[in-house]
Structures are given as C-alpha cells and as structure tokens.
C-alpha cells in the first residue's frame, strides 16, 4: 500500500495532502500569501501526524512543477527533493496548469447548469496563472485534458484566442483569468476565477503517474519557471 505525499506551492496558497493508493488520509491548505516558506514544513508534519504516519512510511513525493510563483515553486520543489533524497524515494511532478485543468473538469461536471453542454466536443479549458501586467502563463486543453497548445507566457488583449473562441466555448480559469475577464469579451468566453491549485487533486494525478512509474530524476529536476526570475534593483534616488 503506497503512501504518497503531495505538495502544492505554485501560487500564493500552500497545500499538502497525504494519499494511500487513491484514498486521501489527511490534507491541509493555507491561503495566506507567501506562506510556503514558513509554513510548508509545519503543515507536512501536521498532515503526517493527522494520519498517524511517519516520513519513513512515504513511498513517493508529488510536487506541482510550475509554472507559477518563482519563490513558491523553488520552496516546494526544494522541499520535495530534500525528502526524496533523505528517504530515498521517487519524485513525481505535475504541471500546475494541467492540475488546474483537471480541477476545472471536475468542477464543471459537478455543476448542474452545464450538463446541457456536450463537453467533449464543444469545450476547451484554458488554465491561467498570473504573470506581470497583462501577461499570463497558460495552455489550452480539450475536455479530455489533451493538450491543444503548449504552456506559454502570453500577453492578453481583446483579440486573444478569438480564432478558437469562434469555434468553441472556452473556460478560462485560475487566478490569471481574473484580469482577463474585462478584456476578453467574446460571447463564447467563460470564466472560473476561484479555482486555486490544490494538493488533493494533485495527489490524484500523481497517483496515476505512480502506477506508471513516471518518476523524475531527483538530482537534475528543476521547477518549470517558464521565464527567468527578474531581480529589480531598488531605486536609491
């Protein structure tokens, strides 16, 4: 029976979940901005204690690999790699945008008001994470979670995605979609702003990779930052 720990630190929230096969044993989420640095180790310990487990019981670590917050990703991946090294267990990585799309699909299937839509043919999912100004990190997937366009940094304007929107309904989701809602006015555009990457569905996706033995090289693995981190010099004038 595999005990798997999932860590999600891609955005301002921070969450941890503990799984055995496909069953969640314990979880914890903190939505305080920039909480990963000070809280991640604490909530990992709390989740293990809640399930009466020890770090030595873990069989793999699942981590959201990005894109997302540079600092959050760095802390999450460093923690995951540290646990993998110490415990000599595999590392499993999941793209944060794939995670958001998975969450959105489950969300839409639960909504009564969208049952009339033929999901597999008429809908695309566009998870978005906030970058700078009117830029987002995003990708496009169909409702079967198959990639249509790869992860990219994209500047949003009124004509963004118009060709696809002329053909299909697109659900824009995640924190990056909030600043796009006033700009993208196409009638086929839909918005789900309140989805935050979460360690519970991350664990579900990670378990599928566990079954397939789809592991990362712990030594060489790095977060998917997508863009270089910009360090600004303070204005001393």
Textual characterization of the structure:
This protein folds into 2 domains: 3-96 and 197-211, Nucleotidyltransferase, domain 5, CATH 3.30.420.40; 97-192, Nucleotidyltransferase, domain 5. Helix content is 29%, strand content 28%. The protein has 6 helices and 10 strands; from the N terminus they run βββαβαβααβββαββα. Helix 1 (36-50) packs across helix 2.
- Proportion in helices: 25-40%
Rg computed from alpha carbons, rounded to a whole number of angstroms: 18 Å
CATH architecture of the largest domain: 2-Layer Sandwich
Structural class: alpha/beta
Q: Major β-sheet, in short?
A: 5 strands, mixed
| Tally of separate helices | 6
Strand content: 25-35%
Q: What is the arithmetic mean of pLDDT?
A: 89
Spatial strand order of the main sheet: 3-2-1-4-5
**Which CATH top level class of the largest domain fits?**
Alpha Beta
**Poorly predicted segments:** 229-237
Number of domains: 2
Shape: globular
CATH level 3 topology of the largest domain? Nucleotidyltransferase, domain 5
Report the CATH superfamily of the largest domain: ATPase, nucleotide binding domain
C-alpha end-to-end distance: 61 Å
Order of helices and strands: EEEHEHEHHEEEHEEH
In total, how many beta strands? 10
Outline:
It is built from six helices and ten strands; from the N terminus they run βββαβαβααβββαββα.
């Amino acid at each position: 029976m595999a005990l798997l720990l999932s860590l999600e630190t891609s955005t301002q929230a921070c969450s941890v979940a503990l799984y055995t096969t496909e069953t969640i044993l314990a979880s914890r989420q903190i939505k305080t901005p920039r909480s990963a640095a000070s809280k991640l180790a604490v909530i990992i310990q709390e989740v293990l204690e809640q399930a009466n487990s020890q770090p030595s019981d873990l069989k793999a670590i699942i981590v959201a690999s990005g894109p997302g917050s540079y600092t959050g990703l760095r802390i999450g991946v460093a923690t995951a790699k540290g646990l993998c090294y110490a415990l000599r267990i595999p590392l499993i990585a999941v793209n944060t945008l794939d995670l958001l799309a998975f969450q959105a699909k489950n969300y839409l299937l639960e909504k009564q008001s969208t049952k009339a839509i033929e999901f597999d043919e008429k809908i695309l999912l566009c998870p978005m994470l906030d970058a700078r100004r009117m830029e987002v990190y995003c990708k496009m997937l169909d409702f079967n979670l198959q990639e249509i366009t790869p992860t990219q940094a994209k500047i949003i304007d009124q004509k963004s995605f118009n060709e696809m929107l002329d053909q299909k309904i697109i659900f824009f989701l995640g924190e990056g979609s909030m600043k796009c809602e006033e700009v993208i006015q196409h009638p086929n555009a839909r918005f789900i702003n309140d989805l935050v990457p979460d360690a519970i569905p991350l664990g579900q996706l990670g378990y599928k990779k566990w079954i397939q033995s789809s592991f990362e090289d712990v030594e060489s693995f790095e977060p998917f930052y997508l863009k270089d981190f910009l360090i600004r010099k303070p204005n001393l004038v």
